[in-house]
# Entry
Amino acid sequence: MAFFGTNGVRGIANEYITPQLAVDVAKSLGTYMGSKGTIAIGRDTRMSGDMLKSAAIAGALSAGLTVIDLGIAPVPAVQYYVRDHADAGMMITASHNPREYNGIKLIAGDGSEFSREGESEVEKIYYSKQFASANWDKTGDLRTASDANEYYIQGIINHVDAQAIREKRFKVVTDTGCGAGSITLPFLLRRLGCEVITINAQLDGTFPWRNPEPTPDVLTELADIVRTTGADMGVAQDGDADRAVFVDENGDFIDDEVLLAMMAKYVLTRNKGIIVTPVSSSRCMADIAEEAGVELILTAVGSINVARKMMETDAVFGGEGNGGLIFPEHQYCRDGGMACAKLLEIIAAGTTLSEFARSVPEYFNSKTKTCCDDLTAIMERVKADVLDGNAEVDTTDGIKIWYDDGWVLIRPSGTEPIIRIFAESKTKAKAEELMLGGLELVEKCK
Ligand code: MG
# Structure
């Protein structure tokens, strides 16, 4: 298993993610950078954040890097800062993972997520333990910067129609889950003229009320407060605030795929161009691209793949169906704060969130997973079987089979010995039928 997973290295803090690991990852990054340059480092609110950040700083200084400590900051704020002020970045976070986790995510000099190639180079150094070690007079300098969050908030305000939003004086309820978004999102909204009601806005790494993953089942309080206060919107973030999910003015959770499609539809009304999503995204995105007469490009799953493809093709919008939206005019990474501000821009034009959500085509999903020993061999057999027929197939990531009335995606997990099967169609029954067909195919190939 790769050292760096889909979102950096993660595990239980002080068990797997130890100070020694943080020192060594930072030394590896410093070695990879040739002991030259400046990195910015931030952390989310997890209990072990100070411990791991201190260790990572020591490692980077030992390798000869200059380090700028940004303190607690959302990952998109660190990325935005790195893009303009540093040569690379480190974020101490386990994003949406449970309380006891922590991890390290590397950030490239342009503020995007570190490339897979870069990560595997750093990983090689990590395992070889052949770290660059600066001479006593070349060990790095440590500085602190207290303006990263302000710089980030201003960046968002500059990239939305702030005037139109301010005029509406929206009422917004936030649930930042005691994570890093607590020190940016409420203040961003206030600067956009909103009346802000906050819950879970204290910085508390024990996450006393809910785990950092903002799933609908833990957002009932948010929904209730939206309803009882007559707010225009409710917004919740994960622990490092690169993702945001929403409830509409009725307190109803907006499905992630619907959110992605809503935003694509809105962006395309103002700026026609390529849009990018992973192969796992809803057919809805294809409908919206078709309606606007633009190209939709599908990538392998993972926001890094979406972001890189957007850069390559100069796309106008992209994102994943998990609340991770990417606005290239702002920065090439998922940004929950920016997503929230953009959504306010949409409703400032005179529609409500529920109305706008209903304006995108509706689809139904069905998914399952099955345990498998030899993922590669099974996937090869599934592929051979599928390619034998005359179905339309996409093998960007896993095997996606298109049908007239839906699709099924068969995809091996990157971290567990399981194959996941996703299906989507215009009706719940059809989606289930397609999912079962996919499952049958995998079972046959075992
Ligand atoms: Mg996250």
